[in-house]
Amino acid sequence: MQTTLNADPAELAKFSELAHRWWDTESEFKPLHQINPLRLAWIQTLVPLAGKTMVDVGCGGGILADSAARQGAKVLGIDLSTKALKVAQLHALEAETPNVTYREVSAEALAAEAPGSMDVVTCMEMLEHVPNPASVVEACARMVKPGGWVFFSTLNRNPMSFIQAIVGAEYVLNLLPKGTHEYAKMIRPSELAHYCREAGLEIQATKGLSYNPLTRRYSMNNNTQVNYLFATRKPAA
């Protein structure tokens, strides 16, 4: 049994306080609603989700899990925020979302319970909020089947990301609540690549995600200076 939970109580409390606003598209979670279609479309270019089993690690209120289920995947969303999961479950009931369930369980615990059981694992905007991101990456690798895909998205750590993701997004444009991100917890692509290699995952593709304050739109591109995504794959047996 896991004795030390890989979670920051302050981070859980921070998102739990906002849980009731997860599905308000004009709330603090508006950016997640805006980038979700972009991320989902990119994932689908690499692995069509219809008929796949998928776990969304750190699912929060279920934005990605819900939309993936609507693409035909059988989705399990996991998180350690009780309030966020209740919101996700309520939304699934109200929206009659097919094939999506939610559990309050850590990535490490689920990996120990059901190794090699998923076709697809996603972990979006979560690694920069936990004490030990390498442990989460390793757990994601354990969950996925040989030949399966694991997707990560997180924030780079450099002066540009500090200016844009913290100063700009939190203090100037008010896109996110102040204190959403801590600079020291951001993860360089080289660091995430190391975690992936150590976990036995092979990087297949990378993408960047940018925000244009003039058009107020997000776009996928090859600029990984601030927000970036990794598509990785577990070698087939």
From TrEMBL:
Pathway noted in the entry: Cofactor biosynthesis; ubiquinone biosynthesis
Superkingdom: Bacteria
Signal peptide, first to last residue: none
UniProt keyword annotations, A-Z: Methyltransferase, S-adenosyl-L-methionine, Transferase, Ubiquinone biosynthesis
Gene Ontology biological process terms, A to Z: methylation
Pfam assignment, any one: Methyltransf_23
Known catalytic reactions: a 3-demethylubiquinol + S-adenosyl-L-methionine = a ubiquinol + S-adenosyl-L-homocysteine + H(+); a 3-(all-trans-polyprenyl)benzene-1,2-diol + S-adenosyl-L-methionine = a 2-methoxy-6-(all-trans-polyprenyl)phenol + S-adenosyl-L-homocysteine + H(+)
InterPro entries attached to this UniProt entry: SAM-dependent_MTases_sf, UbiG_MeTrfase
EC code: 2.1.1.222, 2.1.1.64
Residues engaged in binding S-adenosyl-L-methionine: 39, 58, 79, 124
GO molecular function: 2-polyprenyl-6-hydroxyphenol methylase activity; 3-demethylubiquinol 3-O-methyltransferase activity
Reported function: O-methyltransferase that catalyzes the 2 O-methylation steps in the ubiquinone biosynthetic pathway.
Protein name: Ubiquinone biosynthesis O-methyltransferase
Source organism of this protein record: Rhodoferax mekongensis
